[in-house]
Design brief:
Elements (H helix, E strand, L loop, with lengths): L9 H28 L4 E6 L4 E4 L2 H6 L3 H4 L10 H15 L6 E8 L5 E12 L5 E10 L1 H15 L9 H12 L8 E7 L2 H8 L1 H16 L8 E6 L2 E6 L6 H19 L3 E3 L2 E3 L3 E7 L7 H17 L5 E3 L2 H22 L3 E9 L6 E12 L3 E3 L5 H6 L3 H21 L6 E5 L2 H5 L3 H12 L6 E6 H4 L3 H13 L3 E7 L16 E4 L1 H4 L6 H17 L2 E4 L5 H9 L4 E2 L10 H8 L1
Parallel strand pairs: 11-12, 14-16, 16-17, 17-18, 18-19, 19-20, 20-21
Antiparallel strand pairs: 1-2, 1-5, 3-4, 4-5, 6-8, 6-11, 7-8, 9-10, 13-14, 14-15
Helix pairs in contact: 7-8, 13-15
Amino acid sequence: MPDGLKGPSSSELLSQAQNRLIEHLQASEKRYEDLVGHLRDVVFHLDLALKWTFLNQAWHGMSGYSIENSLGKYFAENLSSQDTQKCTAGFQALLTKQLTEMSEEITFNTADNDKRIFELSCRAVKDETGQFAGFAGIITDITERIVAENKITFMAYHDALTGVANRRLLMEHLAQELTKPCGHCSALLYIDLDNFKQVNDHYGHTVGDLLLCEVSDVLSEYAQDEEDLVARMGGDEFILFLSNLGENSALVTQKLVQITEKIRVQLSEPVLLGKLKIQITSSIGVVTLDHATMSHSDIFKYADAALYHSKNTGKNQVRFYDEELEQSERRRHQLEDELSQAITNEEFLLYYQPQVDAEGTTILKAEVLLRWQHPRHGIVNPDEFIPHLEEYGLIIPVGKWILEESCRQLKVWHNAGKHELCLSINVSANQFKHPDFIEFIEICLIKHQISGEQIELELTEGVAIHDIPSTIKKMDRLQELGIRIALDDFGTGYSSLSYLKHLPINTLKIDQSFVQGLPHDGYDAAIVETTMVMAHHLGLTVVAEGVENRVQLAFLKKQQCHLYQGFLFSQPLNVDRFSELIL
């Protein structure tokens, strides 16, 4: 340095360095404040007395309180005692190093008296000496997230239409119930609305939905205990679970009888939905829980069995699952197993009953009749098992076997020279409504090289007039294949003559209940005479069933009946005996 020039002294250099450091710190602090000030979450500091020492700008928007009025105040002034205890325990755990970070969900009362859900997360902070000086962290408003999560959870566990519990929540509730020790009684009521489909069909699904909501409201009135539950199983089926009914089983049963009868009566009362007054009944199955031995599946199996018997004995009834019903269920399940085995073991047989001309000498058709060759009981008549085939859902495979076997046997007789024989085959409602019914018949005709003219399908009145437009469409398709349609048991069902002119049928079968009283029963005689006149006018073939004597035959001949079927001519025959008769 040149002589005469003095540089800054050490004190001046130190002062300059301090100024630069202060400027740097101030700039850094400003950047921090700018950053923190623009955060949507609250950044806070608490001292060891748990009083606010710093709050960023987000505090006012989130809490509604000003920063100035909040600083220096106790953190929990707007929290519940439960949340306060939860947080103070967390702060203490931070100071004792049991936790390195704390996060708690709290409910905060805002300045607008609104309850918001906050998530408070923080760590303990130390001063320059290394001692704990307080806590620093972030508060996030998670109200919308919690509301959305709760909505999703609610939807997962509740029925969307009625708002009551769904199957999932019911199953979890039952699981908890079954873990409880024995000593208190609980019960499950399985409620099914009778003929609810008719409400939907007649008034529309909107009215049906309103009715379901009304039913759920009625049932909810009986869920008094906090552990009681109303659930919708789907469709028109509901569950009412009643807990803590008492310890005395006799008194519990008496109480349940009173409750279920009140529910049954209340549900049968007319309901006003807008301008419509709707009345419907219900069937109820009841099972009391045995916590020691029952499982989920047991409870529903027993309740379903009780409900089944309630509906099967006339509907609008209450049925309790008891020892008698248990034995009945055991027999029912045994029969179901036996019928399933009968399909597998090919125990079903076809019998054939001739339909002859007026002279009784020519067999023009034969009705195909199903028999069961039971391994222990021998031949079982159809009245004893066909209703159960319908009930257990086995009528479809058995019905297909009947069609297939009939076509196969027709081919055998055709090859033996019996070309004109026609087989009349009974068809159930479930068969006729099945989507592949016509397609399966086509396959059978092609497979066995049988003409459609050799097949006649017998439908009851109930099947024929269910959804008439769809029925007509199917009948037309069948007749395109050459298949004839017969209306079976005419006069015993809906007794409506108006639909006859609309349905493309070929044959009327007069039920044997009207033939038995001929000619002396005036009522039977009048029905038969009227049916004959109408059938002749419509160009229909008439078959009289159950002809057992020549007096009946003479009366029917006088009315110009076309074909006759009954014991006067032949009982139903197995394939070998019928083959001997026709060949």
